[in-house]
Amino acid sequence: MLRTSKTIALALPLGLAALLGTATPTFAQTETTAAQATALPPGPDANTRITESYARLVARDAWFWAWPMVNMYNRRLAYAKAPEQGLIGGTLPLAPHNRLTMLSDYIQPEQRSIACPNQDVVYGAGYLALDVSPVVIQVPDFGKRFWVYQFSDLRTDSITGLGSMHGTQPGFYLAVGPDWQGEVPKGITQVIRTHSNAAFVGPRVFQDDTPEDKKAVQEVIQGINVYPLAEYDGTLKRIDWRKLPIFPKRADGAGETRWVRPDAFFDQLPAVLDLAPAQAGEEARYAQVRAVIAAAQKDPALKQAMIDEAEKADRELVDPLLQFRNWGVPLPHHWTTINNGARFGTDYFTRTAVARSNILVNAPSETKYFYQDLDGAGARLNGAQAYTVTFAKGQVPPVKGFWSLTVYDAAHFFVPNPLKRYSLGTKNKDLKTNADGSLTLYVQAESPGADKQSNWLPAPKDADFSLFLRAYWPEEAIVQGRWTPPAVETAQ
């Protein structure tokens, strides 16, 4: 006979129950045990004494997995100090929160705020504080011109897709925080609800190298804008981005601005975790690091030990990830790639590797990235040697948007050269193909000769460098891995 009472024993064989040395649990007992387990704190008790060794362990781990979030947090803080929309040193966009600033041309080579920029698009940037106000994101009519807005959270994961490849229509897009309950005004094309109140918006608009296109793009980008909901009136607000105030330039070194510092990291991390709530499965990780930070706030020696461990982790774990050859999905001819850009989730290794080497990448359907530090024989790329990259006939990167190959120095910035040329690809209308229809790009410090100069990508003289191939709006052959770049060969 079927019995339904909750206190009836579970169907364990009596012999097994006896062997376990315990009475067979009832349904009620099982439910009570589960409730007790759920109530247990996910980390150490707030009053638990934390040993230095344990604090160092947690500090080292947190430095690695939270490094990208603290990086974005400090960029966000820098924007919060902006008095108005303008340009730092005339080269970098800066805007107060819930605003955006566009460049009006390619990003300049002397900037050091962000590694691995490209000179194929006109960039914009803005940081959102959606707890202060919902924000309207304007999308003008780009016509047939390629465009994409990166819209990402503090983790550098994509929030939603806005761009040519998504079929996004011109209009007004309203970004709201997770708790917003206001009224949506008439004329809003779509409401985008974020998982947290901190977000980044970074438009990228294709521009080719001709004077005609550099002029034509101005009309389009003037319609790109971001502003608080209170200013929305249903009309397209236009700004001539060529007429912006210039703010003083920072004193930057050869490498990227240091956005993450061990001496401030653990003071900032609790606020960062508040802005980037734990994902499923991260609750214990968050609680653990919060408990250790709380203990360190009461114990200067413990805090100093954590800072010391963070400095070691930076040298030993994070810094090596600047070099592409140390991470990524291996491909033929020593190229590497990523398959989860802007969709990192809990892949902490790839997220931090990308953040250290080329932060703020697009999602794979928007842009596919290929990285290279080595030649076809596996030797480090260096300007003392001349190289060629040859795409067979019909085998240039298959894209619906555009592609480009860029040279970066060892710190992942542009290489000064007399042509002021830093990349080659779709934007270059004078590339010459070979007699058999193939396309050869010459990567070297000195000119390959007047007849080949249109295909010359200048490299640093007698110094290490890297190559970076971008495929914007990639075709399925790239997305599915059927197309990969050719070898970087030493010139004969």
From TrEMBL:
The keyword Signal is annotated on this UniProt entry: yes
Gene3D superfamilies: Domain of unknown function DUF1214, C-terminal domain (2.60.120.600), Domain of unknown function DUF1254 (2.60.40.1610)
Domain DUF1214: 367-476
Domain of life: Bacteria
Pfam families: DUF1214 (PF06742), DUF1254 (PF06863)
Native source species: Zestomonas insulae
Signal peptide: 1-28
Protein name: DUF1254 domain-containing protein
Positions of the DUF1254 domain: 98-228
Keyword entries, A-Z: Signal
SUPFAM superfamilies recorded: VPA0735-like
